[in-house]
Q: What sequence folds into this?
């Protein structure tokens, strides 16, 4: 369904919409009036992130000397507020000997990357491409 | 929870739900696309798992 020009967001609010979508997964879709989509993202993505922490996954540090670790850290950060809350509470140290460690990492990284896709989708909706 | 299969199913379920809602607008299409994705994830993991079975660790 293509948005009408009246529904298209202004450049300033586009930035705010994307920032809101980054900080709170699904917030951008809720802002744009796509309630069901927004609610699904609001539940599924933080749940995935929380499961990643529960499975002893690690929130990777920003180490430029190890490019893959740095990229994983960026993916972790992409989930927004849940990442900031988890790091401030000291979660995400990761237990490398836990059987679920790699699953935890996968859940954490994929939750962030999916949120990037969600933000891009919200951007497309906001500019009227979808 | 240390069952690799359950973790795989959980991961497939969450990713399928997000992708289905992201890619399709109609609820009926979302259910169909999400179901296909979920079946694809779990099915391909089972097939790949059995294909790797003869190889030693």
A:
């Amino acid at each position: 369904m293509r948005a009408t020009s009246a529904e298209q967001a202004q450049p300033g609010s586009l930035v705010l919409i994307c920032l809101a979508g980054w900080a709170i997964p699904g917030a951008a879709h809720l802002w744009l009036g796509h309630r069901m989509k927004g609610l699904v993202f609001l539940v599924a993505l933080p749940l995935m992130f929380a499961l990643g922490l529960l499975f002893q996954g690690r929130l990777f540090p920003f180490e430029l000397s190890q490019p893959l670790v740095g990229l994983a850290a960026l993916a972790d950060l992409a989930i927004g507020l849940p990442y900031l809350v988890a790091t401030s509470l000291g979660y995400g140290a990761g237990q490398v000997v836990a059987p679920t460690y790699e699953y935890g990492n996968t859940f954490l990284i994929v939750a962030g990357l999916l949120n990037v896709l969600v933000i891009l989708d919200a951007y497309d909706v906001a500019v009227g491409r979808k | 929870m240390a069952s690799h299969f359950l973790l795989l199913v959980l991961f497939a379920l969450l990713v399928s739900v997000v992708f289905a809602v992201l890619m399709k607008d109609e609820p009926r299409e979302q259910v169909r696309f999400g179901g296909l994705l979920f079946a694809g994830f779990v099915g391909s993991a089972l097939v790949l798992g059995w294909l790797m079975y003869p190889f030693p660790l």
In short: Chain A has a mean pLDDT of 92. The longest helix of chain A spans residues 101-127. The two ends of chain A are 6 Å apart (CA to CA). Helices of chain A lie at 11-23, 27-31, 35-54, 67-77, 81-88, 101-127.
